[in-house]
Amino acid sequence: MKQMVNNPVPGNLKISEEVISAIVTQAAVEVEGVYGLADIPISMKEYILLAKKPRAIKIAMNGGTAGITVGLCLRSGYKIKRIAEQVQQEVKAAVQSMTGVTVSKVNIYVAGVKNEQRSV
């Protein structure tokens, strides 16, 4: 009986920033205490010269490494530091496990807190 060896085919794999952004979104909103995503402020220079619009996730690729910034709106009644740290961990783990892209850092920008009752 001949044994099959699974050798990867030589070539390149490129993963779009939109795919990474979708993974980041899913990982972030699943953390308890996160209400949703919020736009990260941009400078006036970026807005005028580069025609950039504010967005909730910013991905900076440097070689094969990603630096990620996530804008969040949190639910009131939760500890901001704990939620931010948990989002950092979840985003990093999800992106690295699903894409193989190394995540060097995950910056969190808390844009607001939504005052609503927690459901039990």
Automatic annotation (TrEMBL):
PANTHER family: ASP23_GLS24 FAMILY ENVELOPE STRESS RESPONSE PROTEIN (PTHR34297:SF2), HYPOTHETICAL CYTOSOLIC PROTEIN-RELATED (PTHR34297). Pfam families: Asp23. This is Asp23/Gls24 family envelope stress response protein. Belongs to the asp23 family.
